[in-house]
Amino acid sequence: MVPVSIVKCKETENTDILKTKILESINLIGGFKSKISRGDSVLIKPNLVGAVSYKTGGTTNPFLVEALIELLKEFGVGKITIGEGSAVGIKTRDAFAENGWDKLAERKKVRLLDFKKDDFIPMSIPEGKILRHLHTSKSLIESDIVINVPVMKTHDTYPATLGIKNMKGVIRESDKKRFHLWGLSQCIVDLNKLVLPHITIEDGTIGMEGYGPMFGTPANLGVIIASFDTVAADTVAAEVMGVEKDSIECLRLAVEQGLGCGDLSEIEILGCKIIDVKKKFAVASLEESELRENNINILEGGACSGCRITLEAFIYRLQKDGLLSNIKDHTFILGQNVKIPKNIKGPVIKFGVCTKTIDKELQGQEFSYIQGCPPHPDITSLYIKAGKLY
Ligand code: SF4
Known about the structure:
- It is a single chain.
- The protein starts with a strand and ends with a helix.
- The longest helix has 16 residues, at 305-320.
- It is α/β, with parallel strands linked by helices.
- It contains 14 helices and 17 strands.
- It is globular.
- Iron/sulfur cluster binds at residues 303-304, 306-307, 334-335, 352-354, 373-374.
């Protein structure tokens, strides 16, 4: 059985209380001593996707990491680094500044690292399905221990983003973009074959629901989930959030490719039971009636959740901003088995690499093509803007 602990934690800022909660969660799974030796260098990887207050649940709670640092120092580890590289196009320093991570690092005398500015070393991934080589943060590779502290939240490409997905922050910005071209989920899994964390502490002190990963609302979950098996921690976290674990494609592939345990019957839940803390996270959903009013059509055949959720999130954003009429009469096509009806009226947008070669079926109809597997949500917005549709 793979141990995963669940500890209730309604406190969000008192580091003394947070320390007792982290210690309880780690002791339940065997204690720091099962993974860490005195003097080890430790890299802590929070989720700081952008300059968003942790109070929204969009980024890792800095007080939780401060409490973790104090515990690690009391345990006697060596050098501690907090490392993150924010989302494509976002300056990590802005994300650090938003919640005072720079002051925290100064106060605790630990190193604060922007992965985007780190040295990268080429590493091979013999078991990689898409990636056989990848440039990876030198600081991370040289650390003895990696502690992953993702925040539990909904996402615009996956129903939820958790520990496996959080490791995407450690690579070069150019590779982050390429991941979407090459196949996001499998690339994330290949990356984790290289950088799978030693300990994962899922931050559900607040968490985000709705239009995550940055623009949702606080879920106010009040939970910490910890495991030495990131896949098992994600599996339990998904269950707590009311998200079907197999619908998180990178988690499903990680399970299939042996990165950890994704079977609840083989996971020993310690501390609270799932049912005691379960809270169904709201997901952003489209108003079908508004789509009909604007004659916006989505033709889908065999598309995976990556494309479906990315497109829905993009349309949802327009809907929320009252800009849905900007894509009036548009038809989006996605998935490799999509059936194209004759005489589509209005602009056609081919969405995702699966639709790249669907030309003949369009019978001369003009179209735009948004590449990616799935397309990156921000690339989608920019592309539509460039096409003067937004
Ligand atoms: S492009 Fe195709 S394979 Fe890639 S996410 Fe979209 S539907 Fe799935």
